[in-house]
Amino acid sequence: MEIVPGQQTLSIEGLNSNYAQDVKLFNNYLLESGLDFKNALQSYFTEIINKYRPSTIARKKQALKAAIKSQLGQGLSLGQIAQINAFFEEIKIPTPKKQITTDQTISEKELQELITVSGKKTALIIRALYSTACRISELVNIKLSDCTEKKDGVSIRIIGKGRKERTVYLDITLFNEIRNTYQGNTFLFETAGGEPVNRITAYTLIKRAGKKIGRPDIHPHTVRHSFATNRLKELGIDTIGAYLGHSKISTTAQYYLHNIPELKTILRGAL
């Protein structure tokens, strides 16, 4: 079976914006290369393998696979689908590295610089992100009904990935600053229209602040990673994992323990 019978390029109709852009880039390569479709596809991934992150390459594979299946129509047999899947499985891409390196985090000094150059509302989001180690989508959706004031601070109920519940904390002074500034009726971070702050808006504002301190790579998840990295030795891997909402301690370990030697390595030289 030809992968795209009778077609030179792939249609982007019905694809999301990221997938559509990926398909457009491949179509340009296909037309410029002069290769037939199958060879162009294999050659394309060989050329881009060192240009993009593994996760980006994986997305490009999914985009092209989706476009091909869409173009061949809804009447694909199970055998044809299996052929397409098998073809894309032959295109090998690097395994994404899950370890978080120091250049993917910010120090406490950089965090203070980031807060200083931000507007008041953005600074409060950054401070809350670091204190709670929340994902940005979790933070902006915190309701006041999720927050319980206690003697030592405020505990907040979070429903994270997989509908898993956990508790995070805010200093009472920071909590009150947020309440006085955002003045939400339903959400902790609430717009004047009564909606939660948009996570894309928060992302953009934090990126903008990062550029001001010479760190254009900073985004909300950088703050979450930084909390885990900066507090790991103090709190321990079990506590960090639970606070981040990881379902398995191995998940936390593969992200944050890459610079810490294994127990067996240390004990090998024991007296």
In short:
The chain is mainly α and 271 residues long.
Quantity of strands, as a count: 3
CATH architecture of the largest domain: Orthogonal Bundle
Specify the CATH class of the largest domain. Answer: Mainly Alpha
What integer is the average pLDDT?
84
Could you give me the name of the CATH homologous superfamily of the largest domain?
Intergrase catalytic core
* Count of the separate structural domains: 2
Report the oligomer. single chain
Span from first to last CA? 66 Å
Tell me what the structure shows.
With 271 residues, this protein is mainly alpha-helical. The protein folds into two domains: 17-89, no CATH class; 102-256, hpI Integrase, Chain A (Orthogonal Bundle), CATH 1.10.443.10. 55% of the residues lie in helices and 6% in strands. The protein has 13 helices and three strands. It has helices at 17-33, 37-48, 54-72, 78-89, 108-117, 120-132, 136-140, 172-182, 199-212, 220-235, 237-244, 249-256, 263-267; strands spanning 147-150, 153-159, 165-170. Strands 1-2-3 form a three-stranded antiparallel sheet. A hairpin with a 2-residue loop joins strand 1 (147-150) and strand 2. Helix 11 packs across helix 12 (249-256). The chain is elongated and about 70 Å long. The termini are far apart. The model has no long low-confidence stretch (mean pLDDT 84).
